[in-house]
Amino acid sequence: MLLAEDDRAVRESLVRALTLEGYDVIAVTNGAQALDGLRDNSPDLVLLDVSMPHVDGLTVCRVLRSEHNQVPVLMLTARTETGDRVAGLDAGADDYLAKPFDLDELFARMRALLRRTQHQGHGQTGANGGSGELLTLDDLQLDPSGRRAVRGDHQLDLSKTEFDLLELMVRNSGIVLDHTTIYERIWHYDFGPDSKNLAVYIGYLRRKTEQDGGTRLLHTVRGVGYVARVERS
User: Fold this and answer.
1) What's the pLDDT tens digit per position in 39-50?
2) What is the pLDDT of residues 158-216, one digit of tens each?
3) pTM for this one?
4) Per residue in 42-58, is it b (16+ CB within 10 Å) or e — as a string?
C-alpha cells in the first residue's frame, strides 16, 4: 500500500502501526512523490493526506482518476467541514477519514476497501457479482462484467464506487434500499446517520445519468433510503 503524509510524526507512526498489522508500506512525503510511487508500483490501497506540499491530495486523486486508475483511495485530513468531505469524494476518493482518528477505525475502513477490491478480483463484479448479463432500467444499460454503463447513446464515465452503487440500485430496481443496507453492501461499513457519503454519490450518479435531459432514475425515499425506478408522467 502507498501512504502519502507530509507530517513526519504522523507518517512514521502510521508506518509502524501498518507494518505491525502486516501491511507492506511505501511511504512518501508529498503529492508529487505519491504520483511517482503510484506509477512505479501497483499498490492495493492508497492512504492520502489532503494537505501536502508541491501537489495536494485532492489533485493527486483527480490525476489518478483522469488516468483511469481505480485503486481504492482513503483520504486523511484535519479538515472536518462537510464541504471538505464533499471535495475529497468529488475528487474521486472512496472514503474520507478526519484527523485525529482511531487506528481501529482506520484499519476497519481499509479492510472494507480491500474486501471490495478482492471481491471483484475473484470473478465477481460490482456490488452483487455478475456473469456477463446485461442490466437495464429504461434506456440505461449496465454491463457488470465489462463495468460499462450506457444511457441512450452516451457512455457514462463512472468511478469504481459510482459503478458499484449504480449496479446495486439497478439490480434491485423497484426495491427501496435503506441507508444501512447500501453502506454495508458498497462500503462494507455503516458510517452512521450523520454521514453524507451516500448522498454525495447519489448526487454524482444523478448528474451523470440525467445529463442531456435524461429522466430521473434514482429517487429519494425520505427517512428510509433510495430506490431505482422509472416514473412515467
Assistant:
1) 888 899 999 998
2) 888 889 899 999 999 999 999 988 988 887 777 777 777 888 899 999 999 998 888 99
3) 0.57
4) ebbbbbbbbebeebbbb
List, by residue range, all CATH 1.10.10.10 domains of the chain: 135-228
Interatomic CA distance for residues 142 and 223, integer angstroms: 28
User: What are the residue ranges of CATH 3.40.50.2300 in the chain?
Assistant: 2-121
Looking at residue 123, its amino acid is G
CA distance 231 to 87: 31
Q: What is the pLDDT of residues 60-83, one digit of tens each?
A: 988 888 887 888 999 988 866 666
**Separation between Cα atoms, residue 139 and residue 124, nearest integer Å:** 24
Nearest CA-CA partner of 56 in 26, 34, 36: 34
In the chain, helix, strand, coil percent, each to 5? 40, 20, 40
CATH class of the domain defined by 135-228: mainly alpha
Burial group, residue 174, by CB count within 10 angstroms (0-12, 13-18, 19+):
exposed
**Sheet containing 95-98: order of strands:** 26-28, 2-4, 46-49, 73-77, 95-98
Beta strand ranges found along the chain (DSSP E)? 2-4, 26-28, 46-49, 73-77, 95-98, 135-137, 140-143, 148-151, 154-155, 177-178, 218-221, 225-228
The closest of 40, 102, 112, 37 to 72, measured between CA atoms, is 112
Question: Residue 181 is which amino acid?
Answer: T
CB atoms within 10 A of CB 94: 27
Q: Quick one: fold of 2-121?
A: Rossmann fold (3.40.50)
Closest CA to 45 of 123, 114, 115: 114
